[in-house]
Design goal:
The chain has 455 residues and is of the alpha+beta class. 26% of the residues lie in helices and 24% in strands. The chain contains 15 helices and 20 strands. It has an eight-stranded mixed sheet with strand order 13-14-15-16-17-18-12-19. The chain has a seven-stranded antiparallel sheet with strand order 2-11-10-5-4-3-6, with no helix packed on it. Strand 16 and strand 17 form a beta hairpin. One of its GO terms (molecular function) is dioxygenase activity.
Length: 455
């Protein structure tokens, strides 16, 4: 335990995440680890969110060089399936070929027209430009064009679509616009080791909501990297979610995490609930993954009951054996951040993927994708969810497939973002002051960003 974590224990005696998690048994080694190095406690200038020049630096020096989540593998299940990934003005077409996944710059070699529309997906046997019908095979080689005799200067053998790097890990597809730099596995650093027991390849996207937000992409992401705000933005959660006593770990430039206990009260809760009250009122998470609440046996916790119930359900409905998984591995919010913009929650009781990016080339607007994952049915029959797009004033609660309580929490999180953006522009101070521990991963995000943009 480092100095910051010792401070948290003094402030909230006996209420660290690890204390709560160990009440129901030993922790697996990857969850028993704690890592939160001391940081420079400088203020973070608001110009990093509001300044167009800094936004341009991010685009040129960071987004062009990092591995970024593009889609799940089930989006590219068949040869000919394609997905477009856009970031700022960069755009790639990712396609399943006979040889595997390929990624191409989404621009025709004739007059530059986009080959596929932004944020779209579909199936085609080739890649054809919608303007003049130049056409490429799925392997990127030129198939043909109208009036080919008009182009005697074109070397058809060399007229292949320029490639971008594409790779996949744990059912997730990543793209990198740079031909140089680390491989995906090198970039993910400790993540494959941590996820060795958390296989998401047998899961699929059951709900996919894309919300357009009135904020810089970092404002949107950072709202999900701390729970300091929870008792004030989500007061209904304080009885059932450990927020201020979350564990925050920083493992490497590209990987950090927070661990949040479900069915455990916040240190700010007015009065402790009984274990039965915790179980009966445990509404946070993916409601489709839990059933009716039984009685809490003597000497057991609500958390233990929830985990046992979920293990049984996963075995009976999906043939998945989670008997070796600890209680926190089953039900807690185990949220891993992959720099720059991806959050992955592997616990079956709250299995999510979230990612955040600029909305077009606008520093003041962001896209937030919320993907809820479910295990694939035993019979193999499932339908990957279509993307549902909503605007700033639309509610997650309006999406029928969203768990109502989770949707309400997301609405509360995103409703505050315009206030934060406008406050940054209005600020006389011109900078934010982050807490030493609960917001340490936000500071770490900016530390890593500095290594890319060179400031």
């Amino acid at each position: 335990m480092n100095e910051l974590q010792a401070m948290m224990r003094r402030q909230y005696p006996g209420q660290t995440w690890a204390d709560v998690a160990r009440r129901d048994g030993d922790l697996p080694p990857v969850l028993a680890q704690q890592s939160n190095p001391a940081q420079d406690l400088r203020d973070i200038p608001f110009a990093r969110y509001t300044d167009q020049a800094f936004f341009e630096l991010e685009m040129e020096r960071m987004w062009k060089r990092v591995w970024q989540f593009a889609c799940r593998e089930e989006h590219l299940a068949e040869v000919g399936d394609w997905v477009v990934h856009d970031i700022g003005r960069l755009s790639a077409v990712i396609v399943r070929t006979e040889e595997g996944l390929r990624g191409y710059v989404n621009s025709c070699l004739h007059r530059g027209t986009k080959l596929k529309p932004s944020h779209a997906a579909g199936w085609s046997g080739s890649i054809r430009c919608p303007f003049h019908s130049w056409e490429w095979n799925l392997d990127g080689t030129l198939k043909g064009m109208p009036c080919s005799f008009e182009f005697p200067q074109l070397d058809r053998e060399k007229a292949c679509l320029p490639q971008v790097r594409v790779d996949s890990w744990n059912g997730m597809v990543f793209v990198n616009f740079s031909a140089e730099g680390p491989s995906l596995l090198e970039y993910l650093q400790v993540l494959p080791e941590h996820f060795a027991n958390w296989d998401l390849t047998g899961w699929y996207v059951a709900t996919h909501v894309r919300k357009h937000l009135p904020s810089n992409w970092k404002v949107a992401l950072e709202a999900f990297m701390e729970a300091y705000h929870t008792p004030y933005v989500h007061p209904e959660m304080t009885n059932v979610v450990g927020d201020h006593n979350m564990q925050h770990d920083i493992f490497s430039d590209h990987v950090s995490r927070d661990l949040c206990a479900m069915a455990s009260p916040s240190p700010t809760a007015a009065a402790p609930w009984s274990e039965q009250q915790l179980l009966d009122s445990m509404l946070v998470g993916d409601g489709a993954m839990v059933g009716e609440r039984p009685r809490v046996p003597e000497g057991r916790t609500a958390r233990w009951v929830m985990a046992e119930q979920l293990r049984t359900q996963m075995q009976e409905k999906h043939g998945l054996d989670y008997s070796g998984h600890s209680v926190p591995e089953m039900i807690d919010s185990l949220k891993y951040h992959v720099f720059p913009n991806l959050l992955v929650y592997p616990a079956p009781g709250l299995c999510l993927v979230q990612h955040f990016r600029p909305d077009g080339h606008d520093r003041d607007r962001a896209i937030f994708d919320q993907l809820v994952l479910h295990p694939r049915p035993r019979d193999g029959n499932f339908e990957v969810a279509e993307v549902v797009e909503i605007g700033e004033d639309d509610s997650f609660a309006s999406i029928p497939s969203m768990d109502p309580f989770l949707a309400s929490v997301l609405d509360q999180d995103t409703d505050i973002m315009r206030w934060q953006r406008e406050g940054m522009y209005a600020s006389a101070k011109g900078a934010e002051t982050l807490s030493t521990y609960q917001e340490s991963r936000i500071r770490h995000l900016h530390d890593t960003l500095d290594k890319y943009v060179g400031e």
